[in-house]
Every structure is written in structure tokens, then in C-alpha cells.
Amino acid sequence: MAGTEAGGPLRGIRVFDLTRVLAGPTCTQLLGDLGAEVLKIERPGAGDDTRGFAPPTIPGTRESAYFVGVNRNKKSITLDIAKPEGQTIARRLIAVSDILVENFKVGALGKYGLGYVDLHNEFPGLIYCSITGFGQTGPYAARPGYDSLIQAMGGVMSLTGEPDGPPQKVGVPVADLFAGLYGCIGILAALRERGETGRGQHIDIGMLDSHVAWLANQGMNYLATGKNPPRLGNQHPNIVPYQVFPTRDGHLMLSIGNDPAFARFCRNFSLEHLLSDPRFATNASRVENRALVTETLTPVMQSHPTAWWIEKLETLGIGCGPINRLADVFADPQVKARSMVFDMAHPALPEGTRMKLIANPVRLSETPVNYRHPPPTLGAHTDSVLGGILGLDAAEIALLRAKEVI
To answer: Is 33 an annotated catalytic residue?
Structure first.
């Protein structure tokens, strides 16, 4: 398909984006960062739900920080797909698109003739990605999916929190984010296949599936033992010591990943005697005696401030780090050196001011990600897309607006 964007490995690829909130927009923003032209379809007068998820807003604007975080490199088109005229326009745009991404409830787009089965025969090369709470099949398929619900059902809350505390969700919406990432991975694989065969396909991403997949070592710990791993707070289930310790003036994450590192730690901080104690000698024994290790090392760690420990431990090649607040994260010299914050002009901001955004972490040496469009205001590109891609004239666009189709 003939997209109009330039730059990036997905240049020339066009995405028809029927997503909202977080999982779907995360997926399509990644595609946009990689060079795809993303046409974000939004409800006239309302737009993506996250436009209303405020405060906070970007200073000097009414733009929701939530929306802005996952909607750069997109063009906003308002379109009511519940109306026949809207469905016609949607199909015309899909006809010149390579990818469709949606996160409606299972079967919802079929009511508008925009489901995968409705489009596949007519557009056999179309890659159609559906991101839902529970996937397209199974007893829960019709249920809505929400991040906290998936975190609860997916098991991570049973693993997170202090041992004597309640189950705890992760502080960022990881269920949504991982579903978006897996969706993007599936789309890239489908593009590779289409390049070989010319065939598109349906990508079925369930948030619960994604969540179970990233249980990783803890999921495997359960499969190996048949026992639910206990909540350990900030400790590691398989490595000790690998946890937060109090220091003289705060806290420190100490990550001693193997026996040689533990031996180095002991020899440099007057703890050589622990190396001859079978309860400390190997990682397996330290895991078995987790409470004793913590009790033994805590007063040692409390004897010096955090900065002292970081300097000494880094010199020894022992993993450690401060417990940063977000102000510390964004001021960190490594984060700054890697340019993990960038800024863009935005039409809602006064001339000469710019909006700060979090960067894409994917670094490609030959076709780097690029930031072409700021997060769009609602419907900002409706006229240019309908006129430029579909060839509608001003009178036709005005009539659609009068009918509240756009």
C-alpha cells in the first residue's frame, strides 16, 4: 500500500487504527514510531476515552497526559462507524491500508461490517490485529478486559506485595502494555509472512494470555513445584540476596546474582566468615535460609549511607542501585545520555514552547525510530486524510460533517 510517511523500517505501511485507551494505542504508537502512517479513528465529539482521563493535563493545554503518552505519530480522523456512510469511508480507507488494529469487544465490529470475517475475502492482504481482554475464543471471550482485572486473574497480584500484606497490583498498567507489545510483535511477524506470500492474517491477542506468558520464572516455579510462589515483597524468589535493604539514610537495591559476587561482597566488607557457613555458601542454601541472610546483612547495610554503598559496590562490579523517584529517574545521567525524554511542538501549545514525551527505547542503527507528528488534537487530520487519500472534495466533506458522520 502507498503510505505517505517517510523514514523508519515501516515506511510506506499504513495502519487503520480502531483502538482506544492503552493496549491498542501502545501497539499502534510503536508502529508509528517505526515509520508507519497511522490513521487513528475516533468518535466525533468525544474521541479516545483517554482524552478525558485528566487531570493531569499537559501544562498550558487541555490535553490529557494519559492520551499524549501513547498517541504520537498518529493522524486523528473523526468517523462514526455506526452510520452507513461512516462504514463506507472506513472500508475505503481499509482498502488502502496494510494493517487494521482494533480493541473492541469480541464481535462488536461485525455489527458494522468491519470484523475480520467481513473484510478478509475482500482484502486478503490485510493484517488484522484484535486486542481484547480474553481473546476471540474461550468461555471468557465476551467479557470486557481491564488492566487491574487481568492483573488479578493473571496471578501477578498473588506474587506481588509484602508476605504479610494483601495482594498488590503493579504500579503501572502492565497487562495493557504487554498486550500492546505482543500485538506489535505479531504484526511485524505477519508483515514478514505477507512479504513472502502476499497473504494477510488475523492476529488474536488476549490480555490474559499475554499476562500468563510473562509470568516467566514465577510461572515456571509453580509448574515445577505445584505450589504458588509466596509474596516476597522486594525479594527475588530464586536468588538471595537480591532485594531492598535499608541504609543509614534510605534504601538500596542490592542484586547479588551469583556465588562469586557474594564471595566478593563478603571479602570486601568483613564478612569472610559467612563463606565457610553452609547456610551462606551457595545461592541455593541462601534461598533456603532467606530470613537469616536478610537478618545478617541488614545491620551491615545500615552502617553506611546509600551513596557510599553505591560507590563501593559499583567498583566491585556488584549489582546495586538507589530507589529512585520519578524526578530522580528523569534526572539520571544514564537516562539523559540515552535521550529517553524528548520534546515536540504541539498545536495546543503557544508558539515557541514544546511538549515533553517519553522516547521509544528501540534503537536501530540504520533505520531509527522517528517522531514526525505530535499527539493529535481530536479530528485534526480528518479533512486532509479524506481529501488526500480518498479524494473527497470540500463539499463532500462538509456534507459528511453536517450529517455528523465525521
So the answer is: no
